[in-house]
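Comment thread on ticket #2218

A.B. wrote:
> Attaching the input chain for the structure job we discussed in standup.
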Amino acid sequence: MAGNNKQAQHNHRKVMSRADLSKRLVGKLKNDEAVIGGIGWTNFELWGAGFRPQNFYMLGSMGLAFPIAHGVAIAQPNRRVFGLEGDGSLLMQIGALGTIASRGPKNLVMIVWDNGAYQITGGQPSTSATVADLVGLARASGLEKAFWADDEAHFDKLIDRSLSEDGPFFIAAKIDSQKPAATTHRDPVQIRERFMRGLGVRKEPHAL
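C.D. wrote:
> Ran it. Output below, let me know if you need it in another format.
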């Protein structure tokens, strides 16, 4: 009975559009913030939300968006860094949350799109569809600023807070399973080089 009650608490939330929330996020980025997009539809929606050289598009590695974002945040402490991840990928690397909490990067923001499924591989349910409360897991890992976004307006407010307050922040949103309209251009070398130039750690090819 307790498990059923827990399931009801974290799954009876407003389901929002991942495409809309991705565009809302990108629209608020005015200071060359870095964004690491996890694999699959998380990645595709970031691509579709608008080109930015400070975006890094993960290819083929589940659960590494937050560890990579953590590394960028450590390397560039004066830059706000966002990691975008799906629920299934986060559950593959849930231990990363404790590592991030122990280090406490003030400039890191983690966002999880939770549709309770491994969508790109066929829609198999993840445990967040039943018993796993992702915000609860984040708080238990030591992340104090961990929140569910109740609706679009609340999501906007949480992003505004994360851009103005010290983190790390962890923001989760229940999202739909609508297929993205765009697909990331899958050129690993181009993605890497463009991102490094976007962060100012690689010169343009013909720069002196």
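A.B. wrote:
> Thanks. Noting for the ticket: The longest strand covers residues 108-114.
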